[in-house]
Write a structure and sequence with these properties.
By secondary structure, the chain is mainly alpha-helical. The protein has four helices and no strands. Belongs to the PDCD5 family.
Length: about 120
């Protein structure tokens, strides 16, 4: 009985190690895919933006990463469809930032309603 139990424990441990090794390789493949995607994005952005525009976009990414990501996605999409004539300057990037800001601007409205007014009296006696 002891040999059977020991063998079962060994098989279970071997299965755990194999599963763990498999998860590690899947995780590594996921990281490699993310790295390739990041490299591709950077390559496209380097082709469509001049130095000053790249610097401005990098600064924006530090402060507002979601907005910088939206602008990057917009630029990449425009580049893929051939809608960009040449390299975008800093002033061109500012115009694109304004467009993206207008599209993603959140409108806040405040509605105040006075349904019941209470009368407050004070006694000064």
């Amino acid at each position: 009985m002891a040999d059977d139990e020991l063998e079962a424990i060994r098989r279970q441990r071997m299965a755990e190690l194999q599963a763990k090794h498999g998860d590690a390789s899947n995780n590594q493949q996921g990281e490699e895919a993310k790295q390739r995607e990041t490299d591709m994005r950077n390559s496209i952005l380097a082709q469509v933006l001049d130095q000053s525009a790249r610097a401005r976009l990098s600064n924006l990414a530090l402060v507002k990463p979601e907005k910088a990501n939206a602008v990057e996605n917009y630029l990449i999409q425009m580049a893929r469809f051939g809608k960009l004539g040449g390299k975008i300057s800093e002033s061109g990037l500012i115009e694109i930032l304004e467009k993206v800001s207008q599209q993603t601007e959140k409108k806040t409205t405040v509605k105040v309603s006075f349904t019941e007014m209470t009368h407050i009296t004070t006694d000064n006696e």
